[in-house]
């Protein structure tokens, strides 16, 4: 069998399909953006049919560009934006509502109600998550409540629910397989991460019928085969993981203590804690890093909602840059004597504050403040937020020693200035690999190793190649002063002061 492995990376703003060859290099790829729907303030939806069409188009494009046929592909891996949920009709495969996206805040009142009933501890103990609208469970409950007849139909087994991976598997296999993997399940708020099973008590609280949920498999497992009519030949689906988990694998963070951080629209940092299910006392999430051969590896996760999105704000909102890549150059020209801070709480704050009501703020402006100081403040905010996550991780898990090295990926890591500032603020080395498509690579590795055409974890990890290490260079007192200023800015921004 050939070593060609296909990865579908179904992200928040675009879908990518990448065909890797036996040397794990990219043979061909396709990418397609799709519409974001904002039906009300704080609501974010995707059309599942548009997502499905983008998957079919990009897979065909990747094969065409590589000059390969589906019959030459040994396996397919799927990775996806997490938490985003679809409910569809079992008989027709048609969604009964648009997908409710991870960023969507519509279930904040339900989360508040459950918190007031004293239920957050129960959810956290079982799922490792918090009662925040970010996660899928309350979104499923919302659809069952609001779409006429949905709950009854779900109880009768006529409706199915799933994260995007699950919806795609259903469509790709022609409605034969309703499955997901343990990492995606671990983001739903109804999956018990210690017992590795859907949790009846939590399902009852949210009134979600268990029969509408997918079977949960290992990340490298048999998820069925794509219908021959789609790509000309069947392709076995052998790997599935949420995108941040796939990036953890693609960055070869297989050892406890290893950590990756992905800087796209938001930033998601995962610290591998091995078999230890570490309970956070500092409002980080406990999540399943990956599950292989029935063995669960856990992670502590810090989720930041705005990272590269702050650069988009410089470009599209303030219009002080024309392109994202100009942000670093502009920041480098900022006046070192000014202390301008941006707290980018544009959609509230994620970890470790979880303040849905906070809104963005800027501090320290003077008559001399201009585009350069705004650009520096925006890029530095990403470093400061990561620093808050790392501090919380160190407090939560003593093995997360001062020696932590951060492996980075995502669109924003192209900025050398930002990566150097990140190393300076963290006071820790930041490693940027040669392959930045780590998410797709992680999904491809799951599928390729399961198919037996790609190497096992140890050999795969040795193929991780450093492109550049950013070492901390900032004077200790300068760093301390900057961090003190940031903490003051955060304190003044929180909605509950
Ligand atoms: N050179 C750069 N400097 C700073 N930010 C950048 C640069 N290039 C891209 N970005 C930011 O990275 C983000 C895109 O990264 P990507 O990983 O594709 O995100 P996503 O998968 O969330 O869509 C955008 O928000 C963009 O503003
Ligand atoms: O699609 P991305 O890269 O923005 O990632 C989204 C995360 O999985 C949300 O938890």
Automatic annotation (TrEMBL):
<feature type="binding site">
    <location>
        <position position="243"/>
    </location>
    <ligand>
        <name>sn-glycerol 3-phosphate</name>
    </ligand>
</feature>
<comment type="function">
    <text>Key enzyme in the regulation of glycerol uptake and metabolism. Catalyzes the phosphorylation of glycerol to yield sn-glycerol 3-phosphate.</text>
</comment>
<feature type="binding site">
    <location>
        <position position="411"/>
    </location>
    <ligand>
        <name>ATP</name>
    </ligand>
</feature>
<protein>
    <recommendedName>
        <fullName>Glycerol kinase</fullName>
        <ecNumber>2.7.1.30</ecNumber>
    </recommendedName>
</protein>
<dbReference type="InterPro" id="IPR005999">
    <property type="entry name" value="Glycerol_kin"/>
</dbReference>
<feature type="binding site">
    <location>
        <position position="134"/>
    </location>
    <ligand>
        <name>sn-glycerol 3-phosphate</name>
    </ligand>
</feature>
<feature type="binding site">
    <location>
        <position position="13"/>
    </location>
    <ligand>
        <name>ATP</name>
    </ligand>
</feature>
<dbReference type="InterPro" id="IPR018485">
    <property type="entry name" value="FGGY_C"/>
</dbReference>
<feature type="binding site">
    <location>
        <position position="411"/>
    </location>
    <ligand>
        <name>ADP</name>
    </ligand>
</feature>
<keyword id="KW-0418">Kinase</keyword>
<feature type="binding site">
    <location>
        <position position="12"/>
    </location>
    <ligand>
        <name>ADP</name>
    </ligand>
</feature>
<dbReference type="Pfam" id="PF00370">
    <property type="entry name" value="FGGY_N"/>
</dbReference>
<dbReference type="InterPro" id="IPR018483">
    <property type="entry name" value="Carb_kinase_FGGY_CS"/>
</dbReference>
<feature type="binding site">
    <location>
        <position position="16"/>
    </location>
    <ligand>
        <name>ADP</name>
    </ligand>
</feature>
<feature type="binding site">
    <location>
        <position position="82"/>
    </location>
    <ligand>
        <name>glycerol</name>
    </ligand>
</feature>
<feature type="binding site">
    <location>
        <position position="308"/>
    </location>
    <ligand>
        <name>ADP</name>
    </ligand>
</feature>
<keyword id="KW-0067">ATP-binding</keyword>
<feature type="binding site">
    <location>
        <position position="82"/>
    </location>
    <ligand>
        <name>sn-glycerol 3-phosphate</name>
    </ligand>
</feature>
<feature type="domain" description="Carbohydrate kinase FGGY N-terminal">
    <location>
        <begin position="5"/>
        <end position="250"/>
    </location>
</feature>
<feature type="binding site">
    <location>
        <position position="312"/>
    </location>
    <ligand>
        <name>ATP</name>
    </ligand>
</feature>
<dbReference type="InterPro" id="IPR043129">
    <property type="entry name" value="ATPase_NBD"/>
</dbReference>
<feature type="binding site">
    <location>
        <position position="12"/>
    </location>
    <ligand>
        <name>sn-glycerol 3-phosphate</name>
    </ligand>
</feature>
<feature type="binding site">
    <location>
        <position position="243"/>
    </location>
    <ligand>
        <name>glycerol</name>
    </ligand>
</feature>
<dbReference type="InterPro" id="IPR000577">
    <property type="entry name" value="Carb_kinase_FGGY"/>
</dbReference>
<keyword id="KW-0319">Glycerol metabolism</keyword>
<feature type="binding site">
    <location>
        <position position="265"/>
    </location>
    <ligand>
        <name>ATP</name>
    </ligand>
</feature>
<keyword id="KW-0547">Nucleotide-binding</keyword>
<feature type="binding site">
    <location>
        <position position="265"/>
    </location>
    <ligand>
        <name>ADP</name>
    </ligand>
</feature>
<feature type="binding site">
    <location>
        <position position="244"/>
    </location>
    <ligand>
        <name>glycerol</name>
    </ligand>
</feature>
<feature type="binding site">
    <location>
        <position position="134"/>
    </location>
    <ligand>
        <name>glycerol</name>
    </ligand>
</feature>
<dbReference type="GO" id="GO:0004370">
    <property type="term" value="F:glycerol kinase activity"/>
</dbReference>
<comment type="similarity">
    <text>Belongs to the FGGY kinase family.</text>
</comment>
<dbReference type="InterPro" id="IPR018484">
    <property type="entry name" value="FGGY_N"/>
</dbReference>
<feature type="binding site">
    <location>
        <position position="14"/>
    </location>
    <ligand>
        <name>ATP</name>
    </ligand>
</feature>
<comment type="pathway">
    <text>Polyol metabolism; glycerol degradation via glycerol kinase pathway; sn-glycerol 3-phosphate from glycerol: step 1/1.</text>
</comment>
<feature type="binding site">
    <location>
        <position position="83"/>
    </location>
    <ligand>
        <name>sn-glycerol 3-phosphate</name>
    </ligand>
</feature>
<feature type="binding site">
    <location>
        <position position="12"/>
    </location>
    <ligand>
        <name>ATP</name>
    </ligand>
</feature>
<feature type="binding site">
    <location>
        <position position="308"/>
    </location>
    <ligand>
        <name>ATP</name>
    </ligand>
</feature>
<feature type="binding site">
    <location>
        <position position="83"/>
    </location>
    <ligand>
        <name>glycerol</name>
    </ligand>
</feature>
<dbReference type="Pfam" id="PF02782">
    <property type="entry name" value="FGGY_C"/>
</dbReference>
<keyword id="KW-0808">Transferase</keyword>
<feature type="domain" description="Carbohydrate kinase FGGY C-terminal">
    <location>
        <begin position="260"/>
        <end position="449"/>
    </location>
</feature>
């Amino acid at each position: 069998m050939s070593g060609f492995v296909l990865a579908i990376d179904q992200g928040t703003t675009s879908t990518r399909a990448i065909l890797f060859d036996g040397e794990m290099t990219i043979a061909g790829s396709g990418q397609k953006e799709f519409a974001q729907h904002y039906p009300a303030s704080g609501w974010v939806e995707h059309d599942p049919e548009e997502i499905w069409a983008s998957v079919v188009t990009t897979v065909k494009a990747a094969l065409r560009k590589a000059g390969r046929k589906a019959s030459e592909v040994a396996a397919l891996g799927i990775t996806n934006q997490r938490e985003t949920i679809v409910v569809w009709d079992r008989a027709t495969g048609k969604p009964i509502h648009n997908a409710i996206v991870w960023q969507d805040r519509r279930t904040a009142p339900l989360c508040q109600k459950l918190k007031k009933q004293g239920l957050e501890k129960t959810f956290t103990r079982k799922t490792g998550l918090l009662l925040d609208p970010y996660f899928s469970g309350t979104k499923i409950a919302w659809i069952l409540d609001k779409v006429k007849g949905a709950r009854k139909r779900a109880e009768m087994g006529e409706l199915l629910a799933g994260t995007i991976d699950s919806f795609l598997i259903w469509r790709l296999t022609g409605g034969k397989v309703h499955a997901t993997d343990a990492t995606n399940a671990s983001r739903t708020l109804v999956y018990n991460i210690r017992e590795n099973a859907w949790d009846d008590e939590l399902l009852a609280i949210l009134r979600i019928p268990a029969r509408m949920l997918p079977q949960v498999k290992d990340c490298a497992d048999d998820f069925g085969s794509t219908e021959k009519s789609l790509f000309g030949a069947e392709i076995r689906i052998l790997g599935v993981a949420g995108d941040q988990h796939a990036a953890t694998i693609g960055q070869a963070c297989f050892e406890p203590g290893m950590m990756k951080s992905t800087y796209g629209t938001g930033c998601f940092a995962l610290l591998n804690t091995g078999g230890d299910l570490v309970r956070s006392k500092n409002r980080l999430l406990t999540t399943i890093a990956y599950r292989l051969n029935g063995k669960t590896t856990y992670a502590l996760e810090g989720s930041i909602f705005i990272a590269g999105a702050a650069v988009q704000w410089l470009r599209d909102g303030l219009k002080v840059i024309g392109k994202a890549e100009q942000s670093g150059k502009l920041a480098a020209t900022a006046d070192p004597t000014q202390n301008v801070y941006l707290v980018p709480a544009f959609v509230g704050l994620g970890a470790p504050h979880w303040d849905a009501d906070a809104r963005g703020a800027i501090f320290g402006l003077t008559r001399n403040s201009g585009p350069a100081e705004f650009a520096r403040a925006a890029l530095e905010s990403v470093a400061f937020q990561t620093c808050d996550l790392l501090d919380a991780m160190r407090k939560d898990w003593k093995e997360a020693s001062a020696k932590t090295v951060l492996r980075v990926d995502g669109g924003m890591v192209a900025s050398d200035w930002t990566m150097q500032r990140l190393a300076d603020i963290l006071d820790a080395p930041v490693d940027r690999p040669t392959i930045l498509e780590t998410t797709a690579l992680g999904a491809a590795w799951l599928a390729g190793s399961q198919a037996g055409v790609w190497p096992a974890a140890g050999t795969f990890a040795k193929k991780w190649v450093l492109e550049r290490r950013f070492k901390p260079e900032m004077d200790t007192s300068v760093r301390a002063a900057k961090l003190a200023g940031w903490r003051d800015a955060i304190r003044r921004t929180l909605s509950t002061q």
